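Predict the 3D structure for this chain.
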Amino acid sequence: MNDPLYIAIDQGGHATRAVAFDRDGRQAGAAVVTVTTQRNALGHVEHDAADLAGSVVTALEDLARHAPLSRWAAAGLAVQRSSIACWDRRDGRPLAPVISWQDRRNAAWLRGLGHQAARVHELTGLPLSPHYGASKLRWCLDHVPAVRAAAAGGTLAAGPLASFLLHRLLIERPLLADAANAARTQLWSPFERDWSPPLLELFGIPRAILPHATGTGAPFGHLAIDDHRVPVTICTGDQSVVPFAAGPLDPHAAYINLGTGAFVLRPTGSALRAAPLLTSVIRADATHFDCVLEGTVNGAGAALSWLEETQGTAAVRLLALLDAAPLSDPAAPFFLNGVAGLGSPFWRPDFASRFVGEGSELQQCRAVLESVAFLVKVNLDAMDRELGRPRRLVASGGLAGNALLCRMLASLAGAPVERASDLEATARGLARLVAGEPAGFAAAPAQRLEPEPEQTLLARYLKWLELMRAATGA
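Done. Predicted structure below.
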């Protein structure tokens, strides 16, 4: 095959992207298909499972119009890690909507297991949280008649969204759960590298309904696109591949993906327990088992959307005004950011977001942006205690396009920020793994922002941290 192309399928909450890269890391075509997120008055956040699978097919068919199928060498799939699905193992028919990672519908039930939180963290490296898959699967078994009937009849398959997509889309109809996505069910242990019998018992999840646990790099099966068969060799989580977009994994870097949520990753090699941070698998294949400490900020881009919805402000216009603004405004209010649930290190799923102090629309937008930087900073501080300070921060995602946010991060961390001009970090990192990490696979060009000492910003961070601790009782 001449000039092979490597296909990255990024199935996200807002869209499915299919992007082709050549062996040098040059993009050779892309297709985007929007997906719908359904929300109701109960706070449920769902997707139509068949529509998500269909969006992958449509994206691949659209991509084939720009990137010749004859050059497609292999493909990889990256998916939202904590979203779950239930389906019939005989024909791939969905039995329930996909429950989004954002959904916290079984939080009240989960509180009854609060006395087991330390044990859950010991086994998984994760806090007990309704964002993860176990309580969602339990809810489906308790409340969805089709799921209960299939479980009773021995035809139920349930687990990560990635597993459903593999089973639905690949010719071989595999029942497999890769390590990165399986870990986010809170039923799989990175220390045992398999489903955990004590966790299955705790959550009441039958082992028989779960896919076979495997690595992130494996011969998963083949996609059928027209008359072509394309091997899928990587299946993993969307955030798990972000570090690889910047080149070989750097143990001295902190990787920060700034999208709807913000995710802070520090490579550790082997699995490491370090509450209140997360232990996450980013690669597991025949020669690697790479883990990171992870911090989660649920309210990044989502917090700016919250600002628009609740305050009626035009966040995009205000962000543009702030792009070249000074690092700090002592007169701005503070924003206590619990949008979509307060993540690490506080872990308060029902925290009420609010401003402390008054300010103009522009100052409120600055306060929200500043809160994202502060939440990243508090996670970096927790990581520093385990791993030492990073030598550089690698920023990606849509919000990395805002220079003020990246300058705040550099100043607070005391380390340079390298922000890529290519905001498709998930697709690029995934394609690099699919291609086998060739030496010539280029990272996207990055702008380096050196840290600027700013005592006012640091003082505001310390005041914000005091306010957060008082509000959360931490």
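The chain has two domains: 5-237, 247-474.
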